[in-house]
Amino acid sequence: MKNLSITLILLGFGSVWANQITRTQYIDQWKDVAQNNMLEYKIPASIILAQGILESSFGNSDLAQKANNHFGIKCHSSWTGDKFFKDDDAKNECFRSYDHALESYRDHAIFLTNGKRYAELFSLDISDYKAWAHGLKKAGYATHPQYAEKLIKVVEENELYRFDQGRPIAANVRPQKPQTSAPEAIEIASVRTSTVNRVQCVVVENGQTLYRISKATGVSLRQLYKYNDFADNQEVVSKGDFIYLQPKRNKSSEKKTYVVQNNSTTLRQISQVEGIKLKSLMRKNGIENPDAPLKINSKIKLK
């Protein structure tokens, strides 16, 4: 009986470890988001990733797992969102809680750009991750005396500075335009809308992100995730994609079936192309894995 108990304990630990992600996986998962935030908010992608790695144990900490908070940002008096309490510098401290980890990445960028004590950081060279690391420590982002050195070590061990060069697909995310008094109007004017299956959507143009679409349309990130059946870390969208601004339908208003023409097509893709809820398509067709490639010429029921 004692041996059985030990075995069960070990199996329990094994299941916990199986859910952990590696540092390399974390970087691969969030590098595009970090680069988009760099282009949007002028914070080095290397520093964003290094802070995410350090503050969340590359996505495996309780705060990251239970509150989707990857940057250890506490509530402060201005916070009106959900809260998560845990011991830190003091007992039962209040931390910000998010519906999706992507919101944590966005809030981190806003937290730095809007915080007066971090203003000096934005006069630094965006490629000087060492100056940014020391600037964050000086501004009081963290209390650990070696916080800057820890950030620098993470950047250099993982060569995160390579992400500070930006990426071609995002080069036009923030075109150089004269400042105007109505930036929101520019964003809204740049969004091209359409209707699919009687559902309003945005047709993605080059360089657009979910952040910009949310900002332009007034539809929150949380709603975009829900309406489009996105995974928690979904951020990159491609030209021509449909991003729905309201719930998709349970069935097609016109077509009865969809004939698969490509061996890489998935049910999730069909859901987006046809404007039909993913769960509805899964039920109609008895498919459990919406991301598995479908057979060519197979017919997918849309009604």
Question: Can you walk me through this structure?
Answer:
Helix 2 crosses helix 3 (45-56), helix 2 (23-41) packs across helix 5 (101-114) and helix 8 packs across helix 9 (210-217). Strands 3-4-5 form a three-stranded antiparallel sheet. Strands 1-2 form a two-stranded antiparallel sheet. A two-stranded antiparallel ribbon has the order 6-7. It folds into three domains: 2-168, Lysozyme; 183-244, no CATH class; 257-301, LysM domain (Membrane-bound Lytic Murein Transglycosylase D, Chain A), CATH 3.10.350.10. It is built from twelve helices and seven strands. The protein has 303 residues and is mainly alpha-helical. Helix content is 43%, strand content 9%.
Name of the CATH first level of the largest domain: Mainly Alpha
Largest sheet: 3 strands, antiparallel
- End-to-end span in angstroms? 55 Å
**How much of the residues is beta strand, in percent?**
5-15%
What is the quaternary state of this protein? Answer: single chain
- Radius of gyration (CA) equals 22 Å
- Arrangement of strands in the largest sheet: 3-4-5
Q: Quick summary of this structure?
A:
By secondary structure, the chain is mainly alpha-helical. It contains twelve helices and seven strands. The relative contact order is 0.10.
What is the secondary structure topology, with strand pairs?
Elements: H1 2-18, H2 23-41, H3 45-56, H4 62-67, E1 83-86, E2 93-96, H5 101-114, H6 129-139, H7 147-157, H8 183-189, E3 192-196, E4 199-203, H9 210-217, H10 221-228, E5 242-244, E6 257-259, H11 267-274, H12 278-285, E7 299-301
